[in-house]
Design goal:
Elements lengths: L7 H67 L6 H25 L3 H29 L3 H89 L14 H17 L1
Helix pairs in contact: 1-2, 1-4, 3-4, 4-5
Length: 261
Amino acid sequence: MFLHDVKIGTKLFLAFGFFIVLMGISASLSLLSLNRANNGMQSIITSDYPTTVKANQLIENFQEFISTQQLMLLDDQGTYTAQSEQHLKAISERITLILGELDKALQDKQSQQVLADIRGVRQQYLDSRYRILQAVQNNDRAGAIQEMMTNTLSLQQAYKAKVQALIAIQNTQMQRAGEEVEGDFKSNRLVLILITLFSVVVGSLMGWFIVRSITRPLGEAVGFAQSIAEGDLTRNIASHGKDETGQLLTALMEMKARLLE
């Protein structure tokens, strides 16, 4: 057999090398699992969650916009009209900024489509708001209220529905990312368990074989040497390898042959 011809030091070197390779594979898989888990968590932390927060900010700013607009309509004397218009303008600028940030952050087609729908509904809402402001400036509060009841309210509901749809998409993506992280963890854990079991089994077999390949010939050599010491030169031993134990057995046989001479 090939291994019988391999030096003992080489056998031990190969055995330790095998374990080092398995340790390297285990460490690599562990690092890969950690890296994938980190990428998944980073995707949630830096992309999905902030996008959900921004979508909720859209709803909050929109609610503030609606409240300000309603208060402006209730201001019969027009005392706070200019102040309300400035506030509405500031809120509108914040919403525009948030939409711009979402446009940069959203990469998937489904979210981009919903965002485009939000922009479309918002534009319709702004057109309705403009008609309300025009009516207020012309002291036509009845017309302003009519515009709000017939158009603005339905656009408000449509706007909220679109933003909530965007939030639902981001929540789904966060859940999917979490499931991928969990799936990667489970699969890599299984691989590591299998590698560990394989290492234990193969390592045990290799250890047993190496120990046996050393101790068995040594036992034969000890028995042979004791026989010679007792004067028995009839016993023979066979060397089946070229390693150190094989060379020892060969040397003992040569010693016996010289004694017989």
